[in-house]
User: Which sequence fits this backbone?
């Protein structure tokens, strides 16, 4: 039973790598802002680069964009912007929340800057995107509601004009008195101004589990570690569970916030709101999604001598068949790269994902697309490797001459990933593998080979 699943993952990535290779040739001969660049900026940059949003400058008009042309080329060519740090040559490449540039888009921007960043014909300019000025809840209408079933707010934070970045971590009870299954989650700053200072927000769910499969290792004080419930950054608002699956919130649960605030140029006070939509009672999903912490999770696990680059490994055994839903690397300032590799019960191995240019400022969660989420049999080992760069080559490194160990402060280190797993019994797993093969159009002979 172990073979079919990994072949599916191999095939999913193989197909995409081929597609990416041909795209580079597609940049137009003489790109202009109005015709070629504005549509890309609208789709991939404006979510953050527009007035009153988190990025330092607007890229909406030619006049606003032109002075940044060189910087744009540098950031885009290095794939630092848009912030999406998955290595595009390794592992699964289809994500439901991918905000990266295609090779063709990247080539077009570089070509445009190299040609002197011409404006082009004003008549080619696409219609301006109408970004919402008012803040609604994304899924409420779809579920026939006016707002989420449960709203949990972080306690207010005031960020003074010019203040340094701050990380705000209040713990707020959900108030739930019974277990409920979650079908969608949204996070938003509670005010429009709040968007200028809210760089990103992570909401973790802390609760006492009775299900053994859902239990994470305890923290230093013996309390169960909270799992990430949802991570929010500008440009992303909601997360819907895959059909037939959900997260389970238990009575007495708490939300552990981790909010990164940055300078908004004026004094702003804000709260972040978590909106939760439940499956109606009687329509509970069959499959449970569990957020696991995988990798080097404890004191002693991370040991970084001064002026060295070092790899730290950790292993997690899947005790039940599962679908891997997402991958979120977590390291601090010395973090350099992280990979997640599957070691199958039949001895085969496959790198599922690799983040080559980790950046502490961006806690991206990489959510696999429906037909790309790896299906792995019980007994598979997930190996998480984190590489840290404690040398001067790492520009984020505050001090390469000190030893660094595991700890909570940003000057300490961590080397783990948050990985969302949907567990399945043998019957459900077989059905899932079959459906995947059909969706990917694998031929009969390929099926027989497996
Ligand atoms: C998810 C939000 C987000 C998206 C999407 C995004 N940016 Fe950014 N960008 C930022 C933030 C925040 C900064 C400032 C902090 C930093 O440099 O990381 C920034 C910084 C930059 C800078 C550096 C500005 C300087 O000070 O030199 C450039 C250039 C840039 N972005 C270009 C782009 C382009 C081009 C796109 C689209 C192809 C894009 N960004 C998409 C959020 C975003």
Assistant:
């Amino acid at each position: 039973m172990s073979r079919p699943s990994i072949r599916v993952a191999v095939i999913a990535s193989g197909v995409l790598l081929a597609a990416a290779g041909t795209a580079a040739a597609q940049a137009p001969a003489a790109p202009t802002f109005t015709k070629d660049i504005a549509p890309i900026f609208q789709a991939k940059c404006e979510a953050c680069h527009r007035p009153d949003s988190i990025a330092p400058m607007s890229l909406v008009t030619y006049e606003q964009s032109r002075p940044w042309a060189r910087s744009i080329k540098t950031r885009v060519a290095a794939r630092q912007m848009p912030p999406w740090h998955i290595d595009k040559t390794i592992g699964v490449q289809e994500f439901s929340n991918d905000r990266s540039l295609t090779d063709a888009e990247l080539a077009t921007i570089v070509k445009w800057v190299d040609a002197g960043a011409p404006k082009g014909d004003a008549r080619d300019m696409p219609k301006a995107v109408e970004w919402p000025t008012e803040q609604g809840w994304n899924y409420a209408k779809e579920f026939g509601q006016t707002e989420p079933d449960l709203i949990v707010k972080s306690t207010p934070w005031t960020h003074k004009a010019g203040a340094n970045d701050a990380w705000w971590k209040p713990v707020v009870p959900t108030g739930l008195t019974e277990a409920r299954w979650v079908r969608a989650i949204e996070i938003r700053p509670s005010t429009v101004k709040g968007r200028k200072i809210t760089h990103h927000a992570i909401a973790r769910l802390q609760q006492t589990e009775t299900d053994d499969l859902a239990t994470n290792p305890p923290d230093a004080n013996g309390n169960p570690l909270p799992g990430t419930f949802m991570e929010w950054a500008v440009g992303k608002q909601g997360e819907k569970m895959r059909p037939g699956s959900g997260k389970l919130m238990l009575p007495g649960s708490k939300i552990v916030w981790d909010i990164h605030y940055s300078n908004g140029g004026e004094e702003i006070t804000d709260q972040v709101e978590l909106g939760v939509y439940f499956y109606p009672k009687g329509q509970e999903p069959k499959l449970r999604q569990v957020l696991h912490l995988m990798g080097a999770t404890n004191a002693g696990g991370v040991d970084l001598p001064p002026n060295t680059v070092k790899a730290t490994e950790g292993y997690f055994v899947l005790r039940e068949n599962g679908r891997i839903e997402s991958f979120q690397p977590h390291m601090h300032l010395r973090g350099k790269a992280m990979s997640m590799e599957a070691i199958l019960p039949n001895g085969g191995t496959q790198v599922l994902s690799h983040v080559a240019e980790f950046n502490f400022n961006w806690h991206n969660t990489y959510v696999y697309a429906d037909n790309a989420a790896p299906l792995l049999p019980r007994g598979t080992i997930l190996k998480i490797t984190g590489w840290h760069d404690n040398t001067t080559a790492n520009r984020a490194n505050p001090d390469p001459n000190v030893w660094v160990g595991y700890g909570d402060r940003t000057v300490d280190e961590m080397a783990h990933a948050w990985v969302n797993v949907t567990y399945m019994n043998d019957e459900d797993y077989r059905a899932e593998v079959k459906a995947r093969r059909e969706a990917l159009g694998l031929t009969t002979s390929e099926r027989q080979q497996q």
